[in-house]
Amino acid sequence: MKRAFDIIFSFLGMIIISPVLIPAIVAVWLQDFNSPFYVSTRLGKNGREFKMVKLRSMKVDADKIGVFSTTSNDPRVTRVGKIVRKYKLDELPQGWHVFNGDMSFVGPRPQIPYGVKDYTEKEKELFKVRPGITDFSSIIFADESDVLKNSKDPNVDYDLLIRPWKSRLGLFYIDKQSFILDIVLMALTLVGIFSRESALKGGAYILSKLDANQDLIQISKRDQPLQPHSPPGLTETSHSAN
Q1: pLDDT band for position 241 (50/70/90)?
Q2: Number of Cβ atoms within 10 Å of the Cβ of 195
């Protein structure tokens, strides 16, 4: 049912979003007359590599400096790119990947190969399913760039503050996945574009209903500063914060 849903609604979705996507593509192209798309390698189900396409929000070759996590004040983000990122327009081309089977609407976010080099054996279980456009972590950490805003090393701080919880939320989703849960998470993702507070409350409520542990429920509320934490599969934090 999940795959049938992905095929049907990704096809319909690409038609429906075309009035938004096409002007966005033109706007990105007009800012510097370079390709409006950003293509990068991601890891899918069973660790298989695929080329993921996003609407470009940064300057050309921005990824070549070796910083893979983006901050809200990142100088690599263009003026048009700020709007693209704010309204998640950069994710729209991923409907194609859902249609062709590289991704699903809902699932752990696809990672770059560099980003998983330090994954624990437990975290590697995230590759049991197709990666998705959205999931619990996409809703709860929609402000990821703000969290890393003043970071001296966004890659390190991402691994300390965000990755441990994203991985736990992804593993929780895999354990509890269902068609109904997918619909709920897709709905909360849309709600989050207009009201982050409502989306967070909804996420915390769903986690509690699915008997998530208190740590996950608490982090989903995002009402406390994030602290360094170990990823699932490790018992102690192996890094120190900058």
Answers
A1: very low
A2: 11
Tokens representing 73?
């004040």
Q: What is the pLDDT of residue 237?
A: 44
The structural domains of the chain, with segments of one domain joined by +, span 2-221
Q: pTM for the whole thing? A: 0.87
Q: Where are the alpha helices (DSSP H) in 33-143?
A: 79-86, 95-100, 136-140
Query: What are the beta bridge partners of residue 41?
Result: 51
DSSP 8-state secondary structure symbol assigned to residue 138? H
Q: How do residues 212-231 score in pLDDT, each as one tens digit?
A: 999 999 999 999 999 999 99
Query: Going by DSSP bridges, is the β-strand pair 37-43/49-55 parallel, antiparallel, or unpaired?
Result: antiparallel
From its phi and psi, is residue 106 left (phi > 0), alpha (psi between -120 and 50) or beta? beta
Backbone phi and psi for residue 51, each to the nearest 5 degrees, phi listed first:
-95, 115
Cα dist. 128→34, 45, 51, 131 in Å? 36, 6, 19, 9
* Residue 150 per-residue DSSP state: T
DSSP H stretches of helix in the chain: 2-32, 79-86, 95-100, 136-140, 144-147, 154-157, 163-176, 179-194, 196-209, 214-221
Give the three-state DSSP class for 54: strand
Q: Which two tokens stand for residue 144?
A: 């990821």
Sequence-ordered list of residues with C-beta below 8 angstroms from that of 163, at least 6 positions apart, any chain:
231
Q: Following CA atoms 197, 229, 124, 148 in sequence, which dihedral angle do they give, to the nearest 10 degrees?
A: 50
**3-class secondary-structure state, position 39:** strand
Per-residue model confidence as pLDDT tens digits over 38-95: 999 999 999 999 999 999 998 887 776 655 666 667 888 899 998 998 888 999 999 9
pLDDT at 100: 96
